[in-house]
């Protein structure tokens, strides 16, 4: 039996479409411990996410983390869950729909716009297969991570590659590596800040809180830290304010290893001790509100 899938007979006059696949991190199907366990297992089993030898990591993951963390995480997810479901999934669905509408108005109504999650559903293999059956022979994959990291953007590329490894007739593929300094992205951040300041006044500090990664990743050549700081610099420049008023910090540390610093919570505490009473916090690394931002 061949390891490659059987394809329909090729026809020269077959309709050809271009697809755009948005990929976000993922979310459990429900805010329950039962739903969190398989989601966390898939997420924390990714060697791009946890770079620890399997012989060391598997007993920790399966013996400790998956028996304790799902219940605690379920309570946090329940606090942000909406009637429509997971905020991250709801917003990603809307982004795909709005993008399709925007491109159609611009004259690109033949594009096939869809979304997938790296962990959970809808999965990358399932959505790619659906796009294949709809006639997509060219697919642009857009990981929804403005700043590139091996633990986010690269693992999307890995998963797409694993899926396509079984296809006999592969589509033409392109990937967006990052957009941390794209003028449209910076303009969107600045517009959001200015709208907030118009309604609420300017703070003493603007804190840009990015998701953290282990410091070791920086030492091994991951550009994430540098791209976060470039985003911060460009935001300050476009706002026209002193660079020292815009702080870049990192949140959501996991485990005991040192992660990128400064950490968000201690920075806020330090600002309070310095007598700074008005701080606005923004999370530019997340294109959809989720557990990390709400």
Describe the structure.
The structure is a single chain. This protein is of the alpha/beta class. The chain folds into 2 domains: 159 residues, Rossmann fold; 100 residues, Rossmann fold, CATH 3.40.50. The chain contains 9 helices and 7 strands. The chain has a 4-stranded parallel sheet with strand order 2-1-3-4, with helices on both faces. α5 links the parallel β3 and β4. α6 crosses α8. The longest helix is centred in the first third of the chain and has 27 residues. It is globular and about 70 Å long.
Derived structural class: alpha/beta
Tell me what portion of residues adopts beta-strand conformation: 15-25%
**Fraction in helix:** 40-55%
Shape: globular
**Helix-strand sequence:** EHHHEHEHEHEHHEHE
Radius of gyration: 21 Å
- Characterize the main sheet: 4 strands, parallel
- What name is given to the CATH topology of the largest domain? Rossmann fold
**What is the count of distinct domains?**
2
CATH architecture of the largest domain: 3-Layer(aba) Sandwich
C-alpha termini separation: 49 Å
Q: What keyword list fits this structure?
A:
294 residues; alpha/beta; Rossmann fold; 2 domains; four-stranded parallel β-sheet; three-stranded parallel β-sheet; 9 helices; globular
Summarize the SSE layout with pairings:
Layout: E1 17-26, H1 33-44, H2 54-80, H3 87-105, E2 112-119, H4 124-133, E3 136-143, H5 153-164, E4 172-175, H6 183-200, E5 205-211, H7 215-219, H8 224-239, E6 246-251, H9 264-273, E7 279-282
Parallel strand pairs: 1-2, 1-3, 3-4, 5-6, 5-7
């Amino acid at each position: 039996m061949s390891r490659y899938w059987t394809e329909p007979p090729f026809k020269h006059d077959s309709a050809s479409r271009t697809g755009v696949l948005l990929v976000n991190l993922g979310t459990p199907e429900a805010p329950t411990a039962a739903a969190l366990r398989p989601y966390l297992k898939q997420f924390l089993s990714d060697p791009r996410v946890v770079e620890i030898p399997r012989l060391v990591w598997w007993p920790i993951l399966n013996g400790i983390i998956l028996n304790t963390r799902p219940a605690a995480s379920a309570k946090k997810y329940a606090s942000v869950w909406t009637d429509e479901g997971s905020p991250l999934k709801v917003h990603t669905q809307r982004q795909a729909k709005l993008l399709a509408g925007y491109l159609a108005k611009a004259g690109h109504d033949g594009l096939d716009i869809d979304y997938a999650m790296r962990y959970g559903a809808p999965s990358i293999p399932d959505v790619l297969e659906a796009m294949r059956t709809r006639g997509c022979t060219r697919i642009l994959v857009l990981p929804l991570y403005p700043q590139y990291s091996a633990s986010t953007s690269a693992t999307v590329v890995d998963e797409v590659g694993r899926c396509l490894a079984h296809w006999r007739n592969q589509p033409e593929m392109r990937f967006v590596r990052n957009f941390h300094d794209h003028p449209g992205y910076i303009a969107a951040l600045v517009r959001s800040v200015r709208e907030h300041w118009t309604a609420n006044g300017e703070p003493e500090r603007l804190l840009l809180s990015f998701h953290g990664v282990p410091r070791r990743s920086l030492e091994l050549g991951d550009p994430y830290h540098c791209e976060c700081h470039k985003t911060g610099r460009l935001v300050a420049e476009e706002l026209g304010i002193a660079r020292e008023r815009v702080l870049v910090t990192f949140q959501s540390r996991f485990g005991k290893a040192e992660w990128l610093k400064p950490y968000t919570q201690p920075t806020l505490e330090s600002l309070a001790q310095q007598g700074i009473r008005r701080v606005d916090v923004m999370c530019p690394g997340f294109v959809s509100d989720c557990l990390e931002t709400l």
